[in-house]
Every structure is written in structure tokens, then in C-alpha cells.
Amino acid sequence: MRTPESAYDRRRLRQWLAGDARADGVSRRDLLRLLAAAGLAAGAVPAALAAPASAAPGIVKPLPEEWFTIRGTNAETKFASLAGTGYHTPVDHFFVRNHTSTPVLDADDWTLTLWGDGLADGRSVEFTLADLKRLPAVTRSAFVECAGNGRSLFTSQQGQTVTGTAWTLGAIGAARWTGVRLADVLRRAGVSHRAVDVMPRGLDADYIGADGTDFGRVRRPLPLSKALGDVLLAYEMNGEPLPYDHGHPVRVLVPSWIGISSIKWVGDIEVSAVPLYSPWNTDFYRLFGDAYPPGGSAPLTRQTVKSAWELDRDANLAAGTGHRLTGRSWSGAGGVVRVDVSTDGGTTWRRARLHDAPRRDGWVRWSTDWRPPAPGAYTLLARATDTTGRTQPDATTPNTQGYLFDAVVRHPVRAV
Ligand SMILES: Nc1nc2c(c(=O)[nH]1)N[C@H]1C(S)=C(S)[C@@H](COP(=O)(O)O)O[C@H]1N2
Ligand SMILES: [Mo]
């Protein structure tokens, strides 16, 4: 049996690890010793603490330079590093988007509380992880993609100024998620016929904006109709317990919708009889700009269509030699059925070979063979079309926060 003091001490150490507790006057070595003695996160802990200066603050897993580009508190997957990794993104390659930092939570202490005036008898209901695991388990494959994925292309390709993390195309990963249907948990808790919205909230620290505004904990409402649909409370990713950085022990997984919908480290879910708002469906994650109404577009839901080559920007390729070039395309609206590619800046196009059947909520891998005729600079393009007929346009209508970039990307390479 653990004493209450030792449980408290473990919690405090985890908070320190997540940057939420102060330890003035205590050396890192002493804290490392305490962490080891408490048996906390063996393996992951030293990696986080021994992190080199280039590491993203607050991310627990190692972020090797060959696989990741660090952007503030986030880590973007280098698309070139996905070549040959298979359909699902290995956890050690999967991008991390943290508003603050990864809280290192203990699955044994974790509970999920459902509360609010949208519950049938108004009383809150608590679930442990063991309770969730007694409900029918569901496994599904789905990508998680940040709404701002591709944001830097608004600037580099369209000359527009946008705010937010300057992702290239690597703020996406596809995984196999196992968990329970949110619908099953809601039914267990007893949803009133008056309920309209549910709002999952993370256990990570309050998000403080650049100007010092405290936006509170990360949370974003979902309409009840979506919550009763394909949404999971996931506790496994690619067959392993959900890793710390991806929401351990449980995250929400909203297939095909923008990444912010998939709240990590979920601790409570408000079930409401009135529509709910949070900064994440009012100030953020709507489209603002000249082409949109003053209050912005409706809150963003589905992801858009995109393609990426599994090559570094400005990659060198031997001239006069045959290369098999690979990439991936995806859409939030339907499976990708067709990818057209160009290796001459868009003058001529041909179809890429698709290596996966079109899958809703997933991507397709593709390839094309190319022999650069002579040394020099070339521009590669890929344009995907999904089952609903959506095709990547030549330009994306700008929005001030740089969401939902979907234009065909001009990818420079050099034949040498
Ligand atoms: N609690 C919490 N959930 C969160 C976030 C966060 O910072 N805190 N970031 C969101 C955003 S913006 C994205 S894109 C995805 C990223 O998921 P990943 O880090 O597992 O790749 O998580 C979402 N869920
Ligand atoms: Mo995101």
C-alpha cells in the first residue's frame, strides 16, 4: 500500500517534471534521485531531463534531429523520415502539439468526470481507466492533423502574413487507436434529451497567451451529434498504452476533424444543455480575414486535402539516375482516390501509383519514378483528389491564423 504522503509526493514530482511545480534551491540531481526513488516514468524521465538545449520544452519523448523539427513547445515530423515506416506513423516519429507541456500522469490515479446540466439526473459520474476498459473496446485507424499544418506555406508560397506555429507539412500522423466509444460512456453516464454540447478538457496546465492572457485549460466543445458518432476515448496508440506526449492515459480522438478536437490528457467532460464556447471555438480555429465575416467562419471541423513528398526541401538527387519518389496524400472529407504529380514545376502531369485503398480518416501512400534529365533546380508538385471530388487548388484563400492550407505545394529539389 502506498501512503497518502508518498502518493502526494509522486504527484508533486510529476508536476515538477511537467514544469508546474517550483523547486527553488534544489538541484536537478536531487530531483532526479527523488524521481528514481519514486519509480516515476523510468526511461522516459532521464530523456526529458537530460534534454539538450534544442529539445522542445515539456515534451517527454526523445526528438532526434533526423525525425523532428522543434517549433516552440511543439515537434514537427520530418516528412522525409516517414519513407519506409509503413502506413501507421510510429509513435517515436509522431508529431507533438502542446499548448503548454506534457503532464506525466499516473494511469492508476487518473479519473474521468462527466458533469453538467446535460446529464439526465444532473449528478456527475466518475470513471477510472479500469471502468473504461470494461466497456467494449474499439480499434480504428485515423490521422490526427493540426489545423495549422502547412501554415508556413501561406508565407513562403503565397507571400501572406499569418500568426501561429510555422509548420511545414509534418503536423500530421496516422495511428491505430484503441479505446471506447465516447457514445458508450455518455450513455453510461445518462445523457438528458436536452443535451446539445459536450466539452472535454485536458489536465495540462492553463494556456497562457503571448500577451499574458490566461485562456484556462485546453478545451473545445463538440456537438452532441458528433460525440455520439465516431469519437473515441483512446487509451492505446499503435498497440501500446497511450504515450505521455499523446495524452496518457486517455485522449479524445475525433476522426477527420482538426487536431484540437482530440483533447489529450482528458480529465473531465462537461455535458451541457446549452451551447458551449471556449477560446478554442471562438478566438481560435475559425477562419478570419478579408474573405470571412467579422466574427469569423463557423468553428472548423473537418480537415482539408493535402499531399506531401517524403523528401526534404531542397533534397539533392543524382541527375541521370532513376529514382522512386514517394509521398502521402490525405483528406478529412473522404479517402484519396487520385494523386497527380509533376516533376517540372507543373508543366506536365502524370498519375502517381497509389499503394493504399482510399480510406476515410486515413492517408494513401504513393510513388512515382523519375530520372532528372540534367543537373539543376526542379520543382515537384502533387495534387490529390478525394472520393467527394475535392481537389487541391493552386492557392488557398488566406486567413489570418493560417488554418487549413490546402493548395498544391511547390517542393524544390536539386539534381546534382
Ligand atoms: N489537453 C490538450 N489537448 C490537446 C492539445 C493540447 O495542447 N492540450 N493540443 C491539441 C492540438 S492543437 C493538436 S494538433 C493535437 C496534437 O496531438 P499530438 O500531440 O498527439 O500529435 O492535440 C490536441 N489536443
Ligand atoms: Mo493543432
Count of DSSP H/I helices: 7
Whole-angstrom Rg: 22 Å
Largest sheet: 5 strands, mixed
Question: What's the CATH topology label of the largest domain?
Answer: Sulfite Oxidase, Chain A, domain 2
Kindly provide the name of the CATH class of the largest domain.
Alpha Beta
CATH superfamily (homologous) name of the largest domain? Oxidoreductase, molybdopterin-binding domain
Which compounds are bound in this model?
the ligand Nc1nc2c(c(=O)[nH]1)N[C@H]1C(S)=C(S)[C@@H](COP(=O)(O)O)O[C@H]1N2, molybdenum atom
Number of strand segments:
21
Account of the protein in words:
It is globular and about 70 Å long. The protein has seven helices and 21 strands. The strands form five sheets. Strands 4-3-12-7-8 form a five-stranded mixed β-sheet. Strands 5, 6, 9, 10 and 11 form a five-stranded antiparallel β-sheet that branches. Strand 16 (336-342) and strand 17 form a beta hairpin. By secondary structure, it is α+β, with helices and mostly antiparallel strands. Residues 24-29 and 41-54 have low confidence and may be disordered. It folds into three domains: 5-53, no CATH class; 111-282, Alpha-Beta Complex (Sulfite Oxidase, Chain A, domain 2); 306-415, Immunoglobulin-like (Sandwich). The structure holds ligand MTE and molybdenum atom. Molybdenum atom binds at residues 97, 146-148, 259-260. Molybdenum atom (MO) binds at residues 97, 146-148, 259-260.
